[in-house]
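[scheduler] slot 2 assigned
[scheduler] job type: sequence-to-structure, two independent chains
[scheduler] chain ordering preserved from manifest
[runner] begin chain α
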Amino acid sequence: MSGSRGSRAVSRRALLRVGGATTVVGAAVLSGCDLGHDSSSKPAAVPPPDPDQHIVDAARAELRGLVARLSATSGAASLVASHRLQLAALQGDPPPTTQRSRAFTPNQILARERRAAGRFTHWAFTCQNGDLARVLASVAAGIRMQLVVRGTA
């Protein structure tokens, strides 16, 4: 019986060693797996919407409107070119050239340009993205400079 006890003791030790080794290897293998509810096999979550997107959309719409109306106004080519560049800086598409618009009077040009400069200044102060704020402030400054160059400021 002592022989059988010895073999049982060896078997127990061997079993414990194998069990311990299996546990260590299994833990190492499983540590690389993601078995949680937020498994990486699921598609990536949709990122939250940009909090400044409404400002970008409004700024693009403002510039598109100015380009469309100023394109129909004689003597406003420099303003149109300036607003097209500003729209491109905001990655906006210019209005279609087939779009018909009424021309601005000189007083309307002044009023619309001043209003646009004020809006871009406001948007620059209220947006959360610093890079966007700089672009919007630059657009506002560009609009104001065009008014100075034209002598209507």
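[runner] end chain α
[runner] begin chain β
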Amino acid sequence: MMSKEVFISWLNNHESLTADLEFDIHDCFEAALDAATQGLAHMPDIGFMSHSKRLESFYSVCRFFDGLIARGTLEITEALVALNILRAMDRNFRKAADEFTHQAMSAPLGQSEALPVTAREYLNASVDSFTPLVAG
């Protein structure tokens, strides 16, 4: 299990920590960590060098978070912090998220409307600063 301090240190070491993100982490870390743990349990295998499986793994976790949001048990900010927690705690998820970011940055404009809400918000935050952040 990852502590808030270890997570913040990981983000800082990867030059992904911003004041807004740190504020959100302090505000919702426990809920985000719980969601990240659940999301990891619902993540399919990324395969071996499979771009499509990596994308599907990322989308699967995002759809899981979208379901929690729809049921009112998770907020979008918590979901985005959870995606960052997953990046820090699981190498396979980090590969899946990196694949998503790489492919989404080169996708035609307007294609993001078909993405799960959580993936779209993650992308919007990533585009805003070229690092995965939370919506704010």
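[runner] end chain β
[qc] chain β: Confidence is low (pLDDT under 50) at residues 130-136.
[scheduler] slot 2 released
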